[in-house]
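Reading a protein record of the kind used here takes little practice once its layout is understood. An example of such a record is reproduced below.
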Amino acid sequence: MLNLIEAPWIPVLCEDGSRHVVAPWQIAEPGILRPDWPRPDLNLACYELLIGLVFLADPPTNNGDWQRRLAPDPDRLKEKLARFAVAFDLLGDGPRFLQDLSPLDGTPNPVDMLFIDSAGANTAKNNADLMVHRDRYGMLDLPLAAMALYTFQAHAPSGGAGNRTSMRGGGPLVTMVDPGDGLWSLVWANVPCGRSSDPDILPWMKPTRLSEKGQKSHPPEGQVFSAEAFFGMPRRLRLVGSGAGVEGVIQKPWGAHYALWKHPLSPYYRLKAGAEWLPKHPRPGRFGYRNWLGVIAREAGSENSELSLSLRDWGQRGGEASVIVAGWAMDNMKPRDFVLSVQPFLDLPIAAEDMLVGLILAADAAAVALRGALAAVLSEGDAREAAREAFFAATEGMFLDHLQAVKAGGSPCADWLNDLRRQALSQFDALAMPGLDRRESDRIREIVEARKTLSGCFAGYGKQGKALFQHLGMEPPVRGNTRKSA
């Protein structure tokens, strides 16, 4: 049977292009680039698992200790992980990795249920599985079953009465620092400071904490997380299989109901000061600069938004890096999109970061103005939202250029205003001007007025114009000035 500490089971891609299967301690060996599972959500979860294992067994005590241990040490990692082997059997009669301590009775579900984008029983029965899938996996080999199980528990979506979501809700947003120097470098960059734990901290080493009467599982007294953050068990599951593979999953309701935890790899927000912190979730579609606030960049003056601990730690640890942003965008139980993006790590003085936030908010005001102007051309709904998304995509490159100017101590606000104006009017004209002379006269007047209002926004007029100028730190026009349109 597979032991996830002792056996090689993690597929990896190496710098020389070769592929190997390694045990967890071997991630500290040189030349390993990244996990190499057949699905991006499994690769994302594999990073989380490996970070969690190091935090469980041998975390840095502080950032100074983190710095001293930058060099990988596979022998040390092997030794530190060895005492946790008792808790990491996938099958067998004793404790099982991420499964109920006691066997569960019932009819096994297909192993498909371990994948977020698989069809549930009712979906398949009603032939409603258009965007999700059924019957893809008749049997999983043991390594794939282990990785799918971890991914499911770490990101568990809503699953019907009593089937709990993950510690971070269904489909959490994950942000991890990547220094760009291989697998160990990424894992070590994101390991929080703390103290090593014992195997009995793991929830499957003891009877399941049931939640059928509303009981909640809180973090340890005085803390916002422990090693269990990486090994939460919201779903009560038992795999059905043998050494040949896993062919079914028995599930029972009322697993652990996590409350007040803060996962180190996710950003959080709250609705108001003093309210409970809530994990952020990805939106479907492309992740770009419009989504940075509260995820990549701090929201200026906001006490109700917090970057992930991994990003905040890296601000103290230092060095060049990028940020992996990923996760399932969910609509309750339904997966809409798997978001995977690489963004720059921002290491800016407070004043420069405030300016950057202003550039993003100014773009948002411009996009709202464009969307409003397009009411004269496009009906409400997807078409106007698509135009807004196109606006952000078209200005992404210019924004990144201005980011370099901000990093160099410059102020690109006036140039950014011109960029936003040029793009907004160009998009409006491309949609509104073709065939304008063949429209009804009242529609022509409506379109001309909409363009005039849109152009005025970039001179500081109107609600969005005032907001745009305010975000850029520019003085709006004095009331009574003649408004110029283009």
Confidence is low (pLDDT under 50) at residues 121-132, 482-486. Residues 348-486 form one domain. The radius of gyration is 26 Å.
